[in-house]
Specification:
Length: 395
Amino acid sequence: MPLAVYILGLAIFAQGTSELVPAGLLPELATDLGVSVPDAGLLISAFAIGMLAGAPVLAVVTLRWPRRTALLTFLAVFVLVHALSAMTTSYGMLFAGRVVGAFVYAGFWAVAGSTVIGLVPENARGRAMSVLAGGLTVATVLGLSLGTVIGQHLGWRAAFWTVAVISALAAIGVLLTVPGGRPATETAPPSVAAELRAMLNPRLWLAYGTTALTTGALLASFSYLSAMLVGTTGLAPAWVPAVLALYGAGSLIGITIGGRIADARPYPLLYAGVIGLILTSVALALAAPVPPLAIPLIFLLGAFGFATNPALNTRVFALAQGAPTLAAALNVSSFNVGISVGPWLSGLFLTAGLGYPSVAWTGAAIGLAALGTVTLAATLARKGSVAREPVRSAV
């Protein structure tokens, strides 16, 4: 695996930590900025807004740029925004900074995805994408915890400065390891029209639907795990970080295993991951009040939820070979649709008074929809393979 792939994973770790860390510092942010905790929570929503829009817009704007140039530009803006955010006393400025930071982070994701695919052989794409996406998994396990500790002891601004510094170091790594110019495999300059034509493939949009639904199935439960552990499972709040770290460990193991399988057996991996996610969600809904059962299930939730990630990423490149950058960009947006819709649906059932186990039932229901899209995609792929098989003479 080229060093550049790990450097890009480090950059995703830094930016992903910024995405997650406000969740652990809401009281500190609210107190310092003079706003309510719900208003501080909107800083998380602001990041989602930027992510949804940033990937496709910046993928098109920077399509003809050398990828290293685009990556460095995104990182430079990200570092500048976080430095300004760390110095501001204005809630409005911080909110705007979150949107802009997420906007360029989404663009970075899209270009980084097409970059790592171009740096490795075709049979190593799943592993490369698991390293890239593994940066976000490590941010979930390590970045969120360390950022929260730094913010609680040194102030939330110190956490933002830390993200800026790590992002700047990642930019130096990108400068030194990512090749300049356009990839040697490109025979003609990239064209927006060609990329848009490649987007007309219905199977590609089916893949985006699988990405959104699988992510939504996971986030429907994950977003409320802390509250479930305290309110239903009966754990003391002090134990919640340890259980979430267990979830993170499962995520890291799942994405690592998925990266090894995705290139050779993408559909069996998707079936196993989605079915595992459904069964784990159902079991968690039933066993939530019993700590010895609920805690191991949270580990499995992370493992199955993230095992599908490499296949979800590499499938879009196989289906849109003429549009690698825009394909990756819209897949990033699909992930963020799932991140937004899954918790929203769970919140509706919580508001209706159905209790925290209902969020796991919601995840299982979304997972069934994801399983339907996987089954349809596998059927279409099988029919396509049969149609392309040459006819042999009986003589």
